[in-house]
What does this fold into?
Amino acid sequence: MATLFISDLHLDPARPQITTLFENYLAGDEVRHADALYILGDLVEAWIGDDDDAELPRRIAEATRAVHDAGVPVYFMVGNRDFLLGEAFARRAGMTLLDDGAVHGVQGRRTLLMHGDVLCTDDVAYQAVRQQVRNPQWQAQILAMPLEARRAFAAQAREDSRKHTGSTMESIMDVNAAAVANAMRQAGVTRLIHGHTHRPAAHAFELDGLPAERIVLGDWYEQGSVLRVTADDVVLRGLATA
Ligand code: MN
It folds into this structure.
């Protein structure tokens, strides 16, 4: 049996073929026969609240609910694009919310699960923004705004993010090796799975004298990306659009 991981789909009405790829993948045999499906953040390009009445959230909930109803647990961890996704939507979508940094037994191995942004400690400007937007009072203020105002606010936040990403060195936006080691040490694991950086790879290294690995999920901008974990193998692969 296999456990499946995806992240950084950045679903957006502007890329309808990726939304269709997501729906088709979740309806397909691999997902329906999996032990579990994990979505490790940035499922959507922008999430403005569980009360959003747009088409995309409704389609996502239908797709994940059907996986849950088929007997496959669906776990969801928020990323830096969908941190406003909460219990109300998760219930509707048949998803179980996970905290960033949760440790799960995955195919017999304790595995640390993160979105990945907290590991990018060299990006000081980003970490300051993150601290602000994860503040419950700030979030309550945003969620109290009318939907239209929140849509405009999200568009501005994406523009700010694009500017920051465009003007910041690639190395600064990657994970910090010491932050990775600390997180794994604290969790007592030798395997970490995360997304966020859009640099899909399996990195092998030594952690306190033990063989360790950090597996990075890929984004879904041009195609899909899936990690399949079995008892004796991890396979990262792309998914082509129709
Ligand atoms: Mn992210």
Q: What stands out?
A: The first strand starts at residue 3 and ends at 6. The domain at 3-239 is CATH 3.60.21.10 (Purple Acid Phosphatase; chain A, domain 2).
